[in-house]
Amino acid sequence: TPFEVLYGHKPDLSHLRIFGSQCFAWIPPEQQIKNGPHSREAIFMGYPDGVKGWRLRDAQLGSFFNSQDVIFDK
């Protein structure tokens, strides 16, 4: 590939995910409810502009949010 010619090694694609994948986003302690869940189910929608992490859609509420702390269900 052109990348290999320029840099001498294959590109790291481990951070790429399949669009529409089920995942679980960690809820920060300041937003957690006492004895409530520590994560929320979401759907991977893409990559946000100018921010590290993933663009997700809440599976229950349908709202969109960005998160860096995500576990993907493979």
Question: How would you characterize the overall build of this protein?
Answer:
The protein has one domain: SH3 type barrels, CATH 2.30.30. It has one helix and five strands; from the N terminus they run H-E-E-E-E-E. It has a five-stranded antiparallel sheet with strand order 4-3-2-1-5, with no helix packed on it. Strand 3 and strand 4 form a beta hairpin. The radius of gyration is 16 Å and the shape is elongated. The mean pLDDT is 93. This is Retroviral polymerase SH3-like domain-containing protein. It comes from Paxillus involutus ATCC 200175. It holds the Pfam family SH3_retrovirus.
List the helices and strands and how they pair.
Elements: H1 2-7, E1 22-26, E2 39-46, E3 54-58, E4 64-67, E5 70-72
Antiparallel strand pairs: 1-2, 1-5, 2-3, 3-4
Let me know the largest β-sheet: 5 strands, antiparallel
Write down the domain tally: 1
Structural class: mainly beta
Major β-sheet strand ordering? 4-3-2-1-5
> Can you tell me the CATH topology?
SH3 type barrels
- Radius of gyration, in angstroms, nearest whole number: 16 Å
How many DSSP H or I helices? 1
Strand elements, count: 5
Q: What percentage of the residues does DSSP assign to strands (E)? A: 25-35%
Helix content estimate: under 10%
Under the CATH scheme, which class? Answer: Mainly Beta
Order of helices and strands: HEEEEE
Shape: elongated
| CATH architecture field | Roll
Whole-Å distance between the termini? Answer: 28 Å
Low-confidence stretches: none
Average pLDDT reading: 93
Protein name: Retroviral polymerase SH3-like domain-containing protein
Domain Retroviral polymerase SH3-like: 21-73
Pfam family, one: SH3_retrovirus
